[in-house]
Amino acid sequence: MRYFVLAFVLLVFVVVSIAGCRGGLSRRPPVELFADMDRQPKLRPQAVNRFFGNGLSSRLPVPGTIARGAPYQDLPLNTGREPGTTNFVTLLPVPLTSGLLARGQERYAIHCAMCHGAAGDGKGLLAKYQMVGMANFHDQRLVAMPDGEIFNTITHGKNLMGAYGATINPQDRWAIIAYLRALQRAHLATVDDVPEPARAGLNK
Ligand code: HEC
Questions:
Q1: Is there an atom of ligand 1 within 6 Å of 183 CB?
Q2: What is the CATH number of the domain that holds 113?
Q3: Residue 178: CB within 6 Å of ligand 1?
Q4: Distance 161 CA to ligand 1 centre (A)
């Protein structure tokens, strides 16, 4: 009992002396039992930071960033439709260049070929795993389909096909469509499309 009283008095003394120090002024840094996230390895805006090459903590938005609250732009580039209508545009709203085609070929191989096949015939790798019903781009219906409608299919998906609007940006969707058209054109080609000197080498 004597020890308890002694320990109790000691405890009260310690508690009162620690509590009593709160609010006192001192030039020395406070004893920090719990850091309470006082120091954080974060970047402060507009401050120097040597983590990045240019020494700035603030980064520029990535290309294609749309400001929050920016008005939705009803342009064929974004919708695949004539502005203010529900009509699909027939042709690409972006300039057709060899760079666009190359980009489309690359993106097609990444996003579409496993289902629709490298040649666009609907016999991609997944056909080997019993997935069925992938559209064949050489169907007359799809050859005649307006570019805007294909854009719509990529953006929102169709029946069994999922939507790719969230993963493929609009510019790349048009690039894929340009490449898809090249696949269709190549499939429809006849021997007359081959330059005269190269015809002899064809395996007829
Ligand atoms: C997971 C497999 C899969 C992937 C990946 C895929 N598709 Fe499809 N796609 C389908 C299936 C299945 C259909 C048939 C949908 C249906 O039932 O009409 C289809 C249909 C289509 C159609 C025809 C739509 C119509 O109106 O009949 C187009 C065009 C098309 N896909 C383009 C693309 C393009 C371009 C990509 C790449 C960005 C792509 N697809 C990626 C499975 C896929």
A1: no
A2: 1.10.760.10
A3: no
A4: 5
pTM reported for the whole predicted model: 0.74
> CA–CA separation, 141 vs 157, rounded Å?
17
Mean pLDDT for 112-121 is: 95
Task: Count up the domains in the chain and report the number.
Answer: 1
Pick from 6-20, 57-71, 138-152 the range whose average pLDDT is largest.
138-152
Q: How far is the CA of 93 from the centre of ligand 1 (A)?
A: 21
Residue-number span of the structural domain to which 110 is assigned? 90-190
Spatial CA neighbour of 172 closest among 185, 155, 184: 155
Identify any residues that bridge with 158 across adjacent strands, giving them in sequence order.
161
**Per-residue confidence (pLDDT) for residue 42, from 0 to 100:** 84
CA separation for the pair 98, 101 (Å, rounded): 5
- Taking the centre of ligand 1 as the mean of its atom positions, its distance from the CA of residue 49, in whole angstroms, is 46
